[in-house]
Write a structure and sequence with these properties.
By secondary structure, this protein is mainly alpha-helical. The protein has a single domain, classed as P1 Nuclease, CATH 1.10.575. The protein has twelve helices and three strands. A hairpin with an 8-residue loop joins strand 1 and strand 2. It holds the Pfam family S1-P1_nuclease. This is Aspergillus nuclease S1. It is an enzyme of class 3 (hydrolase).
Length: 372
């Protein structure tokens, strides 16, 4: 088993417990990226990666409105986007790209429903990062932090950066495993929640002293299992942004559309039954994206809230060793190698062949008379 990130002591494991579930009885006209479980797992993974200074600042902003509920950090934006005062916010949770292009371009793709520039997930990450690093109090810092954590999770769901024509896979109806009973789901939902729920049911929904059947415990168990495979090398590789930026959503969006094309859309047709081969091959992608989202939320908050934060150095790239070229010159003659003298081979005596007796002629019977 891989070592957990340095500095995450035993107390960090306790921090992975889901602190609470915030439920809103509100209709959901839009699909949200990563369901509650996915966002909660991301927050569970991110919490122990915060420095002490960053964690204190996050807690101080949360305590003003959401005391002791770190899970809210990653789920709030999805739950509140349906309230009237946030009706403008749904476009901030996804990015539409041209069908089949499998590329992302900020100027081309970061547009709202009416073509407004910067109205998409990457634009929102830029905006709320700027609000948090601006010293003035003109912005609601708690709200900016909640939006930022939620949308940084969203942008790591590959189909949140999907094709405009199928709404990120939401209009592609498929059947999951043994559900060929008239109840279909969307390809978007498969990536958003179904694979996560399938994993919870298969591996973490057990009534044993280790695994309990409450939602909080299932999410905590799954979070711990994923965290055990998160290494300092992962943090060093995924955390830093090019040029020392506080956040780098264009990188995250590019990763997502490439993964969407290679893994989400690939080999899928409408009304197809997605079987275990699809589940197992895609599960590793989803687990990696959950870990990447957590690492990037934590390192972004560390850069914003902790002035003494130092990036974990990335592991050095091995330098390939080129063997020295052989010296060019005349090739010396090879001396003959003495060896044992072989005895002469006896001549092969001819084998006498007896004469073959002639074959006597076979008598031919006279032709039968013709019957009149």
């Amino acid at each position: 088993m891989a070592a957990s990130p340095a500095g995450a002591a035993a107390s960090s494991a306790a921090a992975l417990v889901v602190y609470g579930v915030l439920v809103l009885a509100v209709a959901a006209p839009f699909a949200s990226a990563w369901n509650y479980d996915g966002h909660a797992i991301i927050c569970n993974l991110a919490r122990p990666l915060l420095t002490a200074a960053a964690a204190a600042k996050v807690d101080s902003l949360l305590n003003s409105e959401f005391p002791h509920n770190f899970s809210t950090l990653c789920t709030w934006g999805d739950e509140f986007q349906y309230l009237p005062q946030y009706s403008w916010s749904p476009p901030l949770h996804f990015i539409n790209t041209p069908d089949k292009a499998c590329t992302y371009d900020y100027t081309r793709d970061c547009r709202g429903m009416f073509g407004q520039a910067n109205m998409c997930a990457s634009g929102a990450i830029n905006n709320y990062t700027t609000q948090l690093i601006t010293p003035s109090d003109t912005h609601n810092k708690t709200e900016a932090m909640l939006f930022l954590a939620n949308i940084m999770g969203d942008i790591h769901q590959p189909l949140r950066v999907g094709f405009a024509g199928d709404e990120g896979g939401d209009t592609i109806r498929v059947y999951w495993l043994n559900t060929m009973n008239g109840s279909s789901t969307s390809l978007f939902e498969v990536w958003d929640s179904v694979i996560i729920h399938e994993t919870e049911e298969r591996y973490f929904n057990k009534s044993t002293p280790t695994f309990n059947e409450t939602l909080t415990d299932i999410l905590g168990n799954m979070s711990l299992a994923i965290y055990a495979n998160l290494t300092t090398a992962d943090v060093a590789l995924w955390g830093p942004c090019p040029g020392g930026a506080k956040s780098c959503p264009d990188l995250y969006a590019t990763e997502s559309i490439e993964l969407a094309c290679k893994w989400a859309y690939a080999d899928v047709t409408p009304s197809q039954i997605l079987l275990d081969d699809y589940y197992y091959s895609r599960l590793t992608i989803i687990e990696t994206r959950l870990k990447q989202a957590a690492v990037r939320i934590a390192t972004t908050f560390n850069r914003i809230f902790d002035p003494n934060y130092i990036e974990v150095p990335a592991p050095p790239t091995p330098t390939p060793v080129t063997p020295p070229a052989p010296a060019v010159g005349p090739i010396p003659p090879v001396a003959p190698v003495p060896g044992p003298t072989l005895p002469p081979v006896s001549p092969v005596m001819p084998v006498p062949v007896p004469p073959v007796a002639p074959i006597p002629p076979v008598p031919v019977a006279p032709a039968a008379p013709t019957i009149p």
